[in-house]
Amino acid sequence: MSANMQALAEQKYKYGFTTDIEMEEFPRGLNEDIIRLISAKKDEPEWMLKWRLKAFAAWKQMEEPDWARISHPPINYQDLYYYAAPAKAQPKSLDEVDPELLKTYEKLGIPLNERAALAGVAVDAVFDSVSVATTFRETLSKSGVIFCPISEAVREHPDLVREYLGSVVPVRDNFFAALNSAVFSDGSFVYIPKGVRCPMELSTYFRINARNTGQFERTLIIADEAASVSYLEGCTAPMRDENQLHAAVVELVALDEAKIKYSTVQNWYPGNAEGKGGIYNFVTKRGACRGRNSKISWTQVETGSAITWKYPSCILQGDGSVGEFYSVAVTNNFQQADTGTKMIHLGKNTTSTIVSKGISAGHSNNTYRGLVRIAATASGARNHTQCDSLLIGDQCGAHTVPYIESRNTSAKVEHEATTSKIAEDQLFYCRTRGLSQEDAVGLIVNGFCKDVLKELPMEFAVEAQKLLSVSLEGSVG
Amino acid sequence: MLEIKNLHARIGDKEILRGVNLTVPDGEIHAIMGPNGAGKSTLSYVLSGREGYEVTEGEVIYNGQNLLDLEPEDRAAAGIFLAFQYPVELPGVGNANFLRTALNAIRRKRGEEELDAVAFLKLARAAVRSLHMKEDFLKRNVNVGFSGGEKKRNEMLQMALLQPGLAILDETDSGLDIDALKIVADGVNALRAPKFSALIITHYQRLLDHIVPDVVHVLANGRIVRSGPKELALELEERGYAGLEAA
Predict the structure, then answer these.
(1) The model's pTM
(2) Among A434, A443, A451, whose Cβ lies nearest the Cβ of B93?
(3) Under a CB-based contact definition with an 8 Å cutoff, are residues A164 and A196 in contact?
(4) What tens digit of pLDDT does each residue of A139-153 get?
(5) Residue A330 and residue A310 in contact, taking contact as beta carbons nearer than 8 Å
(6) Strand partners, B220
(7) Domain-by-domain residue ranges, chain B?
(8) Which residues of chain A have a CB within 8 Å of the CB of B88?
(9) Poorest-pLDDT segment among A70-84, A85-99, A416-430, B202-216
(10) In chain A, what residues touch B91 (CB-CB under 8 Å)?
(11) In whole numbers, what is the pLDDT of chain A averaged over residues?
(12) Interchain CB contacts (distance < 8 Å): A and B
């Protein structure tokens, strides 16, 4: 590929710029001192520091999981920065946010100015290790909704944080969750009080900017009895030749009759066409349907990252609770994705739905890995899984690894899977009707993903459709 | 006007078209008949630009443009429309969305303004009614779960909306009952105009009872072996294609 062509191909990742801003970084490497520094920087109470140190001790005993269908050179955890933040003091209000940062988010299409913002969407903007702005907080607080950076919640709402942090994803859950628990820097905290329907969509926009820095965000969302909320997250990063680590933990808790809808459009830098650079995305997302008839719904559109390792899951504990997982995962060039879900049925008459659409192009590998477990207590549990793979070209791979464990004879578990290729005759048909090859692929892929895209809030569905077409540009012909 | 001059084409090592000469003036409807394996479908694919067909000699000029230099989508913008013998299914792609995307792609290429959803729906609904189709046609996924007749009607709907200058119907009549046949014929007849021409590729004469051609050509062994007025179709129906190959 000529230099020109390459530049053109890489331009397609339009979020690849860097922000030139004075940063405060802690020394490279990970040890107890760094953790104490992070904790002190955030003015944390003693219990939080202890929790982190316990997690660090646990992490040191653990090993990176190796069961996923991904490969990468070993990550040197002592070579990373664990904290990087804009040097200027934390702003107290939107008016005090560094103009350079405001410009960055403007460029990303996320204006933080409340007048310019998308109507009805409140945003928490996380830049490397800190939250730089949270919009519409006052509007939200009128209905009792708490939406703030988690570092602030640790100080201002310690009772809620202590009760729920680590209650869904325990510190020792897995290697990356333990690492996150030790060094997490920021993320969002949401509490919706009893009976409140959150009046706005909530969203967090994660941006990695600093070089050689890991991002370890932590998000905790609690929907109290009969509360409901829709939450969105978006992610981008600059284009760099070296890989960067992103290891997040997201915990959701839904009490009786509560509903949480969590949508992700993940567009981390995927690396270039030769597979150089890109984000390593090792994420633990889990929701607990603790209450009766509660519902947690995950929708994800995963187009970015060099490696995606992620299994947003539901623990269906409350009787009659509902778990949903809708996923589109696209891999192109040399991207690797091993993603899916776990639905753990504990309560009676619990139901779960899994719809997974994997699209592989280029030299990429795309794996669906899922577990449906029906415990002996889960009488009348039901699951339906639909797992479809679409191949573009003949150098890529699609794999489906479903695990089903049922210990209750009254449960019904269904699994359907298909693999198809975009057929030459479909492309030709579209082209004879005037569509370009790329538009035809976009149309066919969006058709393939329709069942998932329709679950996204509307503004994001449009964005996701465009993203799918852009991610697959150059994959045919 | 379409001019095909000494067209040779092959798939792999097999030569299918061996010097086709054919002129279709604007405003005329020509039928191409011939036995199985004569090269009828190959001709329609070569005209619309399908991959896998290698043109080794000859040229195809449409309104002064060499079609063989153009990508399939640019041929569509130039006014070529191929109605498929087996229309392709596009799961999850809504018919209305597909039609609008196609129409706007062509309008863009022609330097015309794109239609918004409201203007498009108005146009599409009118076309649906004129083809005696149910309106839910627009809501269904492209050809998915359509009966054979519905698929062919959908081709006619696309043709009506895209307003081609030259329509190529590749055995569109195969497997149709008489009612569906009439719908296809109505679709073509409705477009008849001084600037519209059509190439009707068919194995049987019966479609030509409903779309009356100006000229009938016989394609055999990769060449046009006879051309004549519409009565030629009746003669072929009676005597069959035997003996024509040698002619």
Answers:
(1) 0.83
(2) A443
(3) no
(4) 888 999 999 989 999
(5) no
(6) B223
(7) 2-239
(8) 423, 425-426, 428-429
(9) A85-99
(10) 447-448
(11) 86
(12) 76
